[in-house]
Amino acid sequence: MKKYVVMIAITILVAILAACSSDETSGNEKASGDWKPEQAIEIVAPAGSGGGWDTTARMAAKVFNEAGIIEEDIGVVNKPGGGGAVGWAYVAGFDGSNHNLFVASPPILLVPLNGQSEYGYEDFTPIANVIADYGAFAVREDAPWDNLNELFADMKEDPESITVVGTSSPGSMDHIQFVQIAKASGVDVTKIKYVTDPEGVGLTQLLNGSVEVFSTGVAETVEQVKAGTIKVLGITAEERLSGEVLEDFPTAMEQGIDASFVNWRGFFGPPNMDDAAVAYYEEKFKALSESDEFAEIRNQYGWNEMYMNSEEYQSFLAEQNETISALLDELGLGK
Questions:
Q1: One digit per residue, pLDDT tens: the chain, 335 residues?
Q2: Domain range 41-133+262-331, its CATH number among 3.30.1490.20, 3.40.710.10, 3.40.190.150, 3.50.50.60
């Protein structure tokens, strides 16, 4: 009888150890991202074609497939509207999906903070950041200013005499990048005259004299600088960029203004994406960031490498959110 009891005990122990081993193996597989797509992947660009989100999404999808980093089909769809809010609401509807991604940048902090979207970065799954883009402040070639200090000196004296135009709404990207640099220079940012150009004709307004300053992305200024119609007084990067024309753009920091603004750009998943899927995409975006093919694309568009994994991205977003929230409150644009 004793022998029989011992054998039963051993059998139970073996079963328990096997179960633990199975659980441990399953946990390790999950931790190592042992997941693969089972269907086509959709990447949402929460804006129309041709802009930064659209270009980033399409170039990432192109390299993923052509370099063999991801074998499944990847489709890019545009969901414009609300400064990104329409696209975010669309992705939020795929709660728990492992096959839906979207590209994002500072507006996913700015737009919810100024009350124009019910969805913010906390409602999604940060996967990886991949690039850094930067802002540029351009004026007409015949404008009286040759650097940011000259511009800001006039703005300190009479802020409302100079109009700044940007594509994004007040409290969003083009506005805030200009405000952050101007504030560091001592301009009363609450008096800056900023107008929105949602139709993409800010450059036309600059050239016809309707506005004095164009706040935009560096890539949007290159061709006009080549043509000799505008000049870039400064950019928001910490160091000069590389590449034809770009290398000639002075930073605000080298002009003695202790401020920068990075237009980081990365990818998110829907709410409640599986940890294993996040690990899979982290690995793939890291491979994308390190690839020669994507390095060529960064050089083409004047982007810098800025890879962050999911955990790093989450911490970065929280810090950025706090900084931007304080700035919007100062401007009276917080919700």
A1: 444 433 444 444 334 434 444 444 333 333 345 899 999 999 999 999 888 899 999 999 999 999 999 999 999 999 999 989 999 999 999 999 999 999 999 999 999 998 899 999 999 999 999 999 999 999 999 999 999 999 999 999 998 899 999 988 899 899 999 999 999 999 999 999 999 986 778 899 999 999 999 999 998 899 999 999 999 999 999 999 988 899 999 999 999 999 999 999 999 999 999 999 999 999 999 999 999 999 999 988 889 999 999 999 999 999 999 999 999 999 998 77
A2: 3.40.190.150
CATH of domain 134-255: 3.40.190.10
**C-beta neighbour count of 301 within 10 angstroms:** 19
The reported pTM is 0.82
Which residues does residue 131 pair with via DSSP β-bridges, in sequence order?
A: 265, 305
